[in-house]
Write a structure and sequence with these properties.
By secondary structure, this protein is of the alpha+beta class. It has one domain: 2-Layer Sandwich (Alpha-Beta Plaits), CATH 3.30.70.141. 48% of the residues lie in helices and 11% in strands. It has nine helices and four strands. It has a four-stranded antiparallel sheet with strand order 2-3-1-4. The two termini are 38 Å apart.
């Protein structure tokens, strides 16, 4: 009887720990966000960072870089067959960009909502593109469209050492 009780307690403890791990892992989703050359040139990097921070997301990687055409061709490889691809690569390599990694609960989906539609004319007021852009060819920002894309893009732009795991003091005020 005691042995059976001990086994049940051990089993129950493992279940509780598994559930706790799932719950604690939820806020750890990551997405890739990049301010494009027009956003950098217009001085909008701080404004964009501020929006993500105000939402409650945590910045875990950031750099200012001038991307090579090779890196951009890898990044946008899913668009390689599209007629606008050469112009996109040329534009994205025309000036510095600010790639970032953000972490938080549902950050991929929420990040995309914060960006607004790819075409600023279709973006709602209150979104980054709705408030700050006019033309689709100069839509200032890129955001991952899925967790899988985010993981691919993060590993393309950042080494593991460049993505910093840390806990901000305010996290207890953002998540239950």
């Amino acid at each position: 009887m005691i042995a059976t009780l001990s086994i049940l307690i051990t089993y129950f403890t493992r279940i509780v720990q598994s559930v706790a791990n799932i719950i604690m892992a939820a806020p750890r989703e990551r997405t890739f966000i990049m301010v494009k050359p027009d956003g950098v040139q217009r001085g909008l990097v701080g404004t964009i960072i501020e929006r993500f921070e105000k939402k409650g997301f945590k910045l875990v990687a950031l750099k200012l870089t001038w991307a090579s055409e090779e890196l951009l061709k890898q990044h946008y490889s899913d668009l390689a067959s599209r007629p606008f691809f050469p112009g996109l690569v040329k534009y994205m390599s025309s000036g510095p960009v600010v790639p970032m990694v953000w972490e938080g609960l549902n950050v991929v989906k929420t990040g995309r909502q914060m960006l607004g539609a790819t075409n600023p004319a279709d973006s709602q007021p209150g979104t980054i593109r709705g408030d700050l852009c006019i033309q689709v060819g100069r839509n200032i920002i890129h955001g991952s469209d899925s967790v899988e894309s985010a993981n691919k893009e993060i590993s393309l732009w950042f080494s593991e050492k460049e993505v910093v795991g840390w806990t901000p003091a305010v996290e207890q005020w953002v998540y239950e």
